[in-house]
Design brief:
With 399 residues, the protein is an alpha/beta fold. It is built from twelve helices and 23 strands. Strand 20 and strand 21 form a beta hairpin. The N and C termini lie far apart (49 Å).
Length: 399
């Protein structure tokens, strides 16, 4: 894509990635893609805010030269050191040997560790500014959003906040880059929520502190490093991130996420019965087959709904492994403030319930009850499963 003006003197020069299968080597983006947004700020001097990953630096360089021609690049602002934002450093050093890299004190250490870069590095702190002549860069420290060196760059003349991973989302950009240019906003909102739930839930506190810091400046554009540039309604994405971050310490939305797996169809039959009972109450219900759905797509629902219904047969005295894997990731991402129930089949002996109760204690979730049955479910078992699902749903609605 060609460079696009965000505001006078400020250009988006991002790169779309539709060929990478796993973001961070973990989160699937084969269908959705992702953008790596960089920004060129042009005054009497020039500054590039954030970069792109290795393999995409050629397209980035073309866009820089498209905007500034033969002018030198004076500064590269490194808001965040993760390699998807810094992979182009080696090429830029060769093309612009006198360029100065700007970042926090921890960034300086990481530049040496990742790229053996020790010269032409300028350390900035909270509130420091660099005058470009007609444009100014002001730096706001935002540690652990989501690495310790992270910062936000703010341009007060045009009121643009370059926020790197904060307020970002999965999804390659479909031609246009701005929030007011898309009819299918639902896609980007879903992918922003999935991005948050995959990347940032463990750092919800730092995200909220960064939001509070941004509240103190006048922002007309939120320019993240992934996803849409928010110029029409920047408060929309900020408020969504605020809400999602607050779920770390308070109950989330009324709703139930059912995570289930089945080896031979017995737990699956009960899943349908339990789901029918839940649906009688009208509470939102989202259902995931853990054996066929990557945890990336399950985490947003787990994070944003207060009820969790687990359907897991006993597998060698433990819960069905794909379901257990989802719960392990939920613990890693610090998913909290949930009420949970469990159903499942067992053969010669149980064990899934006992193991799940221990995991729920580690997760600090509130245990509701369990409904287990031996072998295949009888008609009476299915009726009890319906009642079990309804009881749990009503407990969520009453919470």
């Amino acid at each position: 894509m060609p460079a696009i003006q965000v505001r006078p003197g400020i250009h988006w020069i991002g790169v779309n990635d539709r060929t990478t299968d796993l973001f961070e080597g973990l989160w699937p983006i084969t269908q959705e893609g992702v953008s790596y947004n960089s920004y060129l700020v042009v005054g009497d001097k020039t500054a590039l805010v954030d970069l792109t990953k290795i393999g995409k630096e050629g397209a980035l360089l073309e866009q820089i030269q498209d905007v500034i021609g033969d002018r030198p690049l004076d500064y590269v602002v490194v808001n965040h050191m993760e390699p998807d934002h810094t992979g182009a450093i080696a090429l830029l050093r060769r093309v612009f040997p006198d360029v100065v890299f700007v970042g926090s004190a921890k960034t300086r250490t990481l530049l040496e560790s990742f790229y053996a870069l020790t010269e032409n590095v300028q350390v900035v702190g909270e509130g420091d500014e660099i005058a470009l002549g007609g444009k100014t860069l002001r730096f706001l420290m935002a540690p652990f959003v989501h690495w310790p060196e992270t910062m936000v760059t703010y341009e007060p003349t045009e009121k643009v906040a370059f926020t790197c991973d904060a307020f970002g989302g999965f999804g390659a950009l479909r031609g246009a880059i701005f929030d007011d240019e898309y009819a299918d906003m639902g896609f980007y909102l879903r992918e922003a929520q999935r991005y948050f739930a995959n990347i940032l839930p463990s750092f919800s506190g730092p995200v909220l502190r960064a939001i509070n810091k941004l509240d103190e400046v006048d922002v007309s554009v939120i320019a993240p490093s992934h996803g849409l540039v928010w110029r029409h309604d920047p408060s929309r994405i900020v408020n969504l991130y605020r809400t999602w971050s607050e779920y770390a310490t308070r109950p989330a939305e009324y709703g139930i996420t059912m995570v289930w797996g089945s080896m031979y169809g017995n737990t699956e039959a009960m899943m349908n019965a339990v789901a029918e009972g839940i649906s009688r109450t009208g509470i939102p219900l989202t259902i995931f087959d853990a054996a066929r759905t990557h945890v990336s797509y399950i985490l947003p629902s787990l994070w944003s709904q207060r009820g969790v219904m687990i359907g897991a047969p006993t597998y060698e005295a433990s819960p069905f492994p794909p379901v257990a894997t989802v719960l392990e990731m939920a613990e890693h991402k610090r998913v909290r403030n949930k009420q949970v129930a469990m159903f499942g089949s067992y053969g010669w002996s149980g064990g899934a319930r006992r193991s799940l109760e221990q995991k729920v204690e580690q997760l600090k979730w509130q245990w509701f009850d369990a409904f287990e049955f031996n072998g295949g479910p009888s008609h009476e078992d299915l009726r009890q499963g319906e009642a079990f699902g309804e009881r749990f749903a009503r407990a969520i609605l009453d919470s």
